[in-house]
Design goal:
single chain; 262 residues; alpha/beta; 7-stranded mixed sheet; globular
Length: 262
């Protein structure tokens, strides 16, 4: 939600759910993933309280990967230092595009300069593992601009790149522009060409295309996401979070924030 009025109540509810579901994972935890929305907007105190509860509830001694999805504009020196102190060792950075026009159209909070600067800042802060997200299928973006986006990502040399086709969600500014005819969605064959260009360019550059949307350098595939696909048990905490017991039971939380808090 863009409305922050329930933020503190939501964090308290997360802590409560962690405690309530403490028996659902047996044995040591291998990976921890803070997924989207935008967990990087959490204050240092809020994020620290979640880590404190996790350590008090689960065996994290054998954790191999702790990922935080982050927005480029949240990559302040203080935030990056704090994230490292909590044990976060991998950032999944929502760059989406290096073009100002695209970022404005998608209503992103960061600008084109921050899209590049955030990578440098994360490396200076000691993050060895970085993945960046790109969006293809953006209305109005030319093939040459998409190719430029991919090339810029390659030059920044992250060890992992994820690329997703733009989805026009209802009740968003972009959806409003599409329904009013002010923006036209791309044809499927155009989107396919963008995807195939991405595939070829990244594989030629040394990234392994190991899942539909994901490309990783050798030994740098996302451990947490790979565990989903290999059928391992996982516990999802928070609104809309999904869980799997590793055998035959799946469950998921209500996606409405006030309903989740209740």
């Amino acid at each position: 939600s863009t409305n922050q009025a329930l933020r503190s109540k939501l964090v308290r509810s997360l802590l409560q759910e962690i405690e309530q579901r403490s028996e659902e994972l047996s044995g040591p935890v291998e990976s921890v993933y803070f997924g989207g929305g935008s967990p990087s907007i959490l204050s240092q105190e809020e994020l620290a309280s979640i880590f404190e509860k996790l350590h008090a509830t689960f065996d994290l001694a054998q954790v191999k990967e702790v990922t935080l999805e982050s927005n480029p504009d949240d990559h302040t020196e203080a935030n990056l230092k704090h994230w490292r102190s909590l044990g976060i060792d991998r950032l999944s950075i929502g760059i989406q595009s290096f073009l100002a026009r695209d970022l404005q159209m998608m209503n992103r909070a960061h600008n084109a300069a921050e899209a590049e600067e955030c990578i440098r800042a994360a490396r200076e802060a000691g993050f060895k593992s970085l993945t960046i997200d790109l969006i293809y299928g953006i209305p109005g973006q030319t093939m040459e601009q998409w190719q430029s986006n991919v090339q810029k990502a390659i030059l920044l040399n992250p060890d992992h790149i994820s690329a997703y086709c733009l989805t026009v969600e209802e009740r968003t500014a972009l959806h409003h522009l599409v329904t009013k005819g002010k923006i036209t969605e791309k044809e499927d064959d155009t989107i396919e060409r963008e995807y195939l260009f991405l595939h070829g360019k990244l594989e030629d550059g040394g990234w392994e295309h190991y899942e539909i949307s994901n490309f990783g350098k050798s030994g740098k595939h996302a451990l947490h996401n790979s565990n989903y696909w290999s059928g391992k048990a996982y516990l999802g905490i928070g609104p809309a979070a999904h869980s799997f017991d590793g055998v035959n039971k799946r469950r998921w939380n209500v996606s409405n924030n006030p309903a989740y808090i209740r």
